[in-house]
Amino acid sequence: MSKELGEHKIWIIPEWMKEFRDHIESGCGGQTAEQLMNNHTATFFNNPILCELIGMCSAKVSLLERLHKEGFIPKLERKK
Question: Do 56 and 20 form a contact (C-beta atoms < 8 A)?
Fold first, then answer.
């Protein structure tokens, strides 16, 4: 999910992905997945460590999105 803001879309963790939040954010230096996925200013020249964290988070999110799209992660049915 995303919302437009200026040039970049703001990434918001989808509801179905929230159960994996701890896995996504493990090893991310205390930053949330949203903070890392929405960081469009860090470069390897001005902050290489942050770039590594962003890449790690992005890879986890991408893998989960592909697994969900292929049906390996079932859609959650919320009990009311």
Answer: no
Token pair recorded at residue 66: 């592909």
pLDDT at position 28, please? 86
Per residue in 51-60, pLDDT tens?
999 999 999 9
Place of tokens 């999110």: 61
3-state secondary structure of 15: helix
The pTM assigned to this predicted structure is: 0.80
69's tokens: 């799209």
> Residue 35 falls within a domain, yes or no?
yes
Q: Is residue 23 part of a domain?
A: yes
DSSP string, 37-76: HT--S--TTT-HHHHHHHHHHHHHHHHHHHHHHTTSSPPP
Report, as an integer, the average pLDDT of 8-26.
93
Domain limits at 50? Answer: 2-69
Task: Domain count for the chain, please give it.
Answer: 1
